[in-house]
Amino acid sequence: MDKRSTAFRGIKAIERSAVGGGLAAALMLSTGLAVAQVLPNEIETGDNALFSSRVLTTDLSNPWAMRWGPDNMIWVTERTSGEVTRIDPVSGAQQVLLVLEDVYTGPQHEGLLGLALHPEFLEGTGNDYVYISYTINNGSTEEPDPSARIVRYTYNEQLQQLVEQTVLLEGLPAWNDHNAGRVVFGPDGKIFYSIGEQGANFGRNQRRPNLALTLPTQEEVDSANWRTYSGKILRLNPDGSIPDDNPEIEGVRSHIYSYGHRNPQGLAFGPDGTLYEAEHGPATDDELNIIQPGGNYGWPWVAGYIDDKAYLYVNWSEAPEGTNLNATPVPDTVPQFPESEFEGEMIDPIATYWTVEDDYPIGAICGYICDPTIAPSSLLYYEAGEDGIVEWDNSLLIPTLKHGTLYVQRLSEDGQQAEGDPVAWLSTQNRYRDVIVAPDNRTVFIATDAFGSAAQKFGDGLNTSVLHNPGAILVFTYGEGGNGLGFAQGPATVDEARSGGASTNAAAPQEWEDPATGGGAEQAEGGEAEAPDSVTEESNITDVAALGAPKYAETCAMCHGPDGRGRAGAVLAGNEKLADADFVATSIVHGFGYMPAFGDQLSDNDIAEIGTYIRNSWGNDFGVLTTEQVRNTR
């Protein structure tokens, strides 16, 4: 049946629902159990035996946001297909309500994102409105120029379709990274919207200035120039205009409610109106914040607390022309600032996941999946009441991308502080994107990404691009206990992983090896040591490809597919362009078209091993890519 059909996808969905537990069990590999994730410190694992579990539905195109409708249906946005879909929470049957024709999608952060239902939706007041956010492309395929917009649709109950688009706010910043995109209604009837800083000044976007702390001028607001809205949380009237009681920041009132954010994908209100926010940190210090009007939250000068731990603000966007953006150590000509030099008045987070010391081996356990962050993808306040999940009372539910775990963070009685570390619940080998709870307060629904890298929990290794329930909604029911999905054991500490208590990826950089350059201990301490060439013309292709395979799975498979047949990236299977070794090396080191550069993340040896793997897989037979060939492209 056509995926874009507006009819229910009922038969297939019901079949999936009926075999939910069996399907999940079949997808759980029968090899040995590894660990759920690597953390810098021990945290408690919840008693998952309190829940039954099953797969509600599958074949979703990267579900991003879920809302429980007053029609007792789950309303979902599908990021990559641009569809708003309604799903039966019992049978899993799917109905497409809207297909966006102008949505612009990419590997991770572009596409159809946020979703909110009007507070009076389907109450007979005429406010049957659905609010969504998505990205569009104002440029070409070769030179994309994306922006984001917030729009309103009317739900026609007779047609069971979303009709009559009204644009509320457009021309919002967007790019190929960190677009955030959460849309929530506040108890004050205003719309709150999160925008990331588009990854500016980091990774593939090193040369783009970071505007998370830059505020608009009155002239920009008057001319509807929203360029400085990156790294902000906005507050707007339901018609998209600026509320009269928005904070005036440095003499200017705009849509901006708070600023200094990195990638704020979690927004949720508590019962007293407290606005909680969760955002991604760089390699450490994911943050849990309470948002105050006009508040400054410090990014990019500060990650987590102002403590000068494991983070230095390096302003690559102001590096002199010709600077090697992959250089280690960072050249003195590039502006660098410790957190303690930040002069603004910053609001501290109520928790970080996690703050570590400078000597933590970032990148050296299994790449970024094992770095001390959890990648919080959403946020939901939970109150147990009389019949709910007592273990979760007065908590924030935090689904995570890297760990496929629902972290439950207890709050103080007044909701203004985080109490201790979170507890890890419902861990599976997936990427958790959003969470909602049914009105019975006991049934939990978690949406999963359709592709990406995550903690490996079954079999050898710590990271993987093999997801057990891609593009799905999973159901966990409290009080029924013990059947369906197999849960992974609790997290391991970094010391356990390094001492062999957890199965690590042998091909990953070892302790004290710089993941960007491959340099060993001497280089980490300021010396000039370089890793020896691991791939030469005389190397055995099979052996080198075997080393490159897990690195490809971690770094490349999300876009190019585990079978090399492409998803958001180019098809590599049977690709004659891979015969050119210099082309392969240059593309990985410096990027190519939409593909980001990985030269700052991977060593020469890593790239040589990945390049050899892709040049000799899926029908390709092009020989080794040597370490020297990679080095010569830098």
Write up this protein.
This protein has 634 residues and is α+β, with helices and mostly antiparallel strands. It has 2 domains: 10-491, Neuraminidase, CATH 2.120.10; 510-633, Cytochrome Bc1 Complex, Chain D, domain 2. A 5-stranded mixed sheet has the order 11-12-13-16-20, with no helix packed on it. Helix 6 packs across helix 9 (604-615). The radius of gyration is 24 Å and the shape is globular.
Cα-based radius of gyration, to the nearest Å = 24 Å
Highest-level CATH class of the largest domain = Mainly Beta
CATH superfamily of the largest domain: TolB, C-terminal domain
- The number of domains: 2
For the secondary structure, the number of strands is: 33
Contiguous runs where pLDDT drops below 50 for at least 5 residues:
1-34, 501-530
- Percentage of residues in strands: 25-35%
Strands in their spatial order, largest beta sheet: 11-12-13-16-20
Topology:
Blueprint: H1 10-18, H2 20-27, E1 38-39, E2 51-57, E3 63-68, E4 74-78, E5 83-87, E6 94-99, E7 112-117, E8 129-137, E9 146-156, E10 161-173, E11 183-185, E12 191-195, H3 218-222, E13 232-236, E14 248-249, E15 252-253, E16 256-259, E17 263-269, E18 275-280, E19 286-290, E20 295-296, E21 312-314, E22 336-338, E23 351-353, E24 380-382, E25 395-399, E26 406-410, E27 423-425, E28 432-437, E29 443-448, E30 454-455, E31 463-464, E32 473-478, E33 492-493, H4 494-499, H5 521-524, H6 541-555, H7 557-560, H8 581-590, H9 604-615, H10 627-633
Parallel strand pairs: 1-33, 16-20
Antiparallel strand pairs: 2-32, 3-4, 4-5, 5-6, 7-8, 8-9, 9-10, 11-12, 12-13, 13-16, 14-15, 17-18, 18-19, 19-23, 21-22, 24-25, 25-26, 26-27, 28-29, 29-32, 30-31
